[in-house]
Design a protein that fits this description.
By secondary structure, the protein is of the alpha/beta class. It has 2 domains: 3-110 and 181-296, P-loop containing nucleotide triphosphate hydrolases (Rossmann fold), CATH 3.40.50.300; 118-176, Histone, subunit A. The protein has helices at 14-25, 50-55, 72-88, 100-108, 118-131, 133-143, 155-168, 172-176, 197-214, 216-225, 240-247, 253-278, 288-296; strands spanning 3-7, 27-31, 58-59, 92-97, 188-193, 284-285. The protein has a 6-stranded parallel β-sheet, with helices on both faces. Helix 2 (50-55) links the parallel strand 2 and strand 3 (58-59). The chain is globular, with a radius of gyration of 20 Å. Monomer. ATP binds at residues 8-15. This is tRNA dimethylallyltransferase.
Length: 302
Amino acid sequence: MEGVIIAGPTASGKSAAALEIAAALDGEIVNADAMQIYRELPILTASPSAVDRAQIPHHLYNCVPGEERWSAGLFARKAAALCDDILARGRRPIVVGGTGLWLKALTDGLSPIPPIDDSYGRAAAARWAQLGPEDFRREVLNLDPAMEALAPADRQRHLRAWTVATATGTPLSEWQRVPPTPVLTIEWARGVLMPDRETLRTRSAHRFAAMVERGAMGEVAALLARDLSLSLPIMKAVGVRELSKVLAGEWSLEEGVSAAVTATHRLVKRQTTWFNNQFSAWPQSASANALNEALGGGQGRR
């Protein structure tokens, strides 16, 4: 086993588990959470504390400005380079996060779709706004009939299909038929930290309340002051919309916190479903201790 991958839904305790495993295996932690990369929201995204980072080297946390968009492919390339460097220094990469597509890109390989300039994504969003969902969907199906399988309300995937077909001249469905290109070939020990549903719900509620006490409201206020596009990924972080309404005087703090906790529960449900479907072969553990034992015992290897 050269490296460890820990997946799990929000509030599962995977960051703490990664710290323990990294300490035991002389490892360094690499982030695989799409929101924890942004530098503006360390509190709201539950990023590792300064104390944690002083104990173990952490990479790809709070290092990207909010106006940037990261794809699974960009993450996989950056993370693979970091893992190579960590291995070259005689240590082990401990990759941890809840963004399943990013983990899958790292472990299974990248789509051969070439890098696409951000201007195409902006053009797709503008076209959606101009045409509306129904006519935009018709345009997507003209470009790529296989996208008929997309749910009509799935804006993000329609935008992606339009962007890829327009930028590359090749439908997304054709790109998807080409085998992915591995970015890193090492022996991974893999595991999913999956506490029971009630534990996740309780932790989510307590954690968000603690975030507010620690200054999450100030983070959101500073983010809003930058007047970034609402289409950017950072603006979709759980808590941004809800606390924005509190700051605008539309909701009370209690209403905002309640709505954010509900949004967190929905996120946890989506993540849980995704991991159960996509990583069904990975061993699941209900506690950090059980996960540590499973990974340390050599289970979960590919």
